[in-house]
C-alpha cells in the first residue's frame, strides 16, 4: 500500500480527488451531562453536510447533487500554498474507517450478522490504524528502527492522562462560562460551539462537579496521509472513552427572579463520553500538543451504513467530476 494515498482513497488509489472528500460530517451529539441547548450545539455541523445522512432516501440524481454540493477545496495542497495560507486545515472531520465499538453490554446477540460485521470492521480498523501510524511516523523519521514502527507505541497511559485532563478542563471552564483559558487546546469549531452555548445561557449558573476519577480507554488511534502534493504531512486522531461520575445543578441568576434557586437534584450520575484528540505533522514537524477535535458517538449499524453510503457517494461524485 502506498504511503501517499489521500485520506479518502485508501481503498481506491486510482481516484485522485480534485475536490474535498475530507470534510466528513460531524455526527450530531447526544446531550452532555449538563447540556442547556439542543444536541446539535456540540456538533458544529454545517447544515449541508448534515443533510447527507438522508442520502439513502433520495433518488440517484439527488444523491449525486447532494454529494457534489458537500465538497469544497481539498486540504491537500502544495507546500508553497501551505506556507502562503499559514499551514494545513485544522478541522477535517473524523478520519475514514474510524470505528468506536460500543460496550459488550450494548451489542446484539452473537447470533446476529451485525455483531460479527462490527467485530470484523473493528478489527480491520485497528489493523489499518496500526499501518497508518507507521506512515505517520515516517513523516518525521526517515531512517533507523523508527522508520518501520508505528508512532507512540507505548504511550497509552499518557494519552489517557491527556484525555482526562482536557475533559475536566473543558467542562470546568464551560460551567464557569469562560473558555478563554483553554482556547488554544480546542479546534475552532468546538471552541465556537461552546462559546455560542455560553452566550445563549445568559442568566444561568452551572454548578458542575466531577465526583470520581475518569476511567479512560483508547477506542481508536489512526492517521491519514495527504499525498504527493503535500509530502510529510498527515493527520492523526485519537478517540478515548471517558467514564466518570458527575453531578450538576442549575441556578437562575435573573435579578427579576427574587426566588432564584437551584434546579436539578445534583445527585451523582454516571456519564460515558468519547473525546476525540487530533494532532498533525507538517513538513516533517509535528504539532507540539494534542488538540481537542470534539466528541464522537458509538458506532451503530445505522451509523455504519450511513458512513459507507456517504463515502460511496463522495467517491462517485468525485470520479464523475474529473
Automatic annotation (TrEMBL):
<dbReference type="InterPro" id="IPR051975">
    <property type="entry name" value="mtLSU_mL45"/>
</dbReference>
<protein>
    <recommendedName>
        <fullName>Tim44-like domain-containing protein</fullName>
    </recommendedName>
</protein>
<dbReference type="GO" id="GO:0005739">
    <property type="term" value="C:mitochondrion"/>
</dbReference>
<keyword id="KW-0809">Transit peptide</keyword>
<dbReference type="InterPro" id="IPR032710">
    <property type="entry name" value="NTF2-like_dom_sf"/>
</dbReference>
<keyword id="KW-0496">Mitochondrion</keyword>
Amino acid at each position: 500500500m502506498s504511503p501517499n494515498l489521500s485520506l479518502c482513497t485508501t481503498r481506491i488509489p486510482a481516484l485522485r480527488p480534485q475536490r474535498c472528500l475530507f470534510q466528513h460530517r460531524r455526527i450530531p451529539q447526544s446531550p452532555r451531562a449538563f447540556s442547556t441547548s439542543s444536541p446539535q450545539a456540540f456538533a458544529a455541523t454545517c447544515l449541508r453536510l448534515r443533510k447527507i445522512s438522508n442520502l439513502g432516501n433520495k433518488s440517484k440524481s439527488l444523491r449525486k447533487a447532494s454529494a457534489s454540493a458537500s465538497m469544497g477545496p481539498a486540504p491537500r495542497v502544495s507546500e508553497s500554498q501551505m506556507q502562503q495560507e499559514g499551514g494545513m486545515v485544522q478541522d477535517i472531520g473524523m478520519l475514514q474507517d474510524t470505528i468506536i465499538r460500543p460496550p459488550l453490554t450494548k451489542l446484539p446477540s452473537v447470533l446476529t450478522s451485525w455483531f460479527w460485521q462490527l467485530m470484523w470492521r473493528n478489527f480491520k480498523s485497528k489493523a489499518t490504524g496500526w499501518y497508518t501510524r507507521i506512515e505517520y511516523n515516517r513523516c518525521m523519521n526517515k531512517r533507523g528502527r523508527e522508520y518501520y514502527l508505528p508512532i507512540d507505541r507505548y504511550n497509552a497511559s499518557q494519552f489517557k492522562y491527556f484525555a482526562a485532563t482536557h475533559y475536566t478542563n473543558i467542562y470546568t471552564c464551560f460551567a464557569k462560562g469562560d473558555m478563554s483559558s483553554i482556547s488554544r487546546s480546542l479546534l475552532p469549531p468546538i471552541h465556537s460551539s461552546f462559546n455560542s452555548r455560553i452566550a445563549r445561557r445568559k442568566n444561568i449558573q452551572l454548578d458542575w462537579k466531577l465526583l470520581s476519577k475518569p476511567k479512560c480507554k483508547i477506542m481508536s488511534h489512526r492517521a491519514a496521509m495527504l499525498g504527493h502534493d503535500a509530502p510529510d504531512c498527515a493527520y492523526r486522531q485519537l478517540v478515548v472513552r471517558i467514564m466518570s461520575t458527575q453531578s450538576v445543578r442549575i441556578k437562575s441568576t435573573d435579578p427579576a427572579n427574587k426566588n432564584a434557586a437551584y434546579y436539578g437534584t445534583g445527585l451523582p450520575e454516571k456519564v460515558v463520553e468519547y473525546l476525540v484528540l487530533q494532532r498533525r505533522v507538517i513538513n516533517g514537524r509535528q504539532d507540539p500538543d494534542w488538540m481537542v477535535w470534539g466528541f464522537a458517538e458509538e458506532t451503530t449499524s445505522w451509523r455504519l451504513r450511513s458512513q459507507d453510503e456517504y463515502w460511496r457517494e463522495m467517491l462517485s461524485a468525485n470520479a464523475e467530476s474529473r
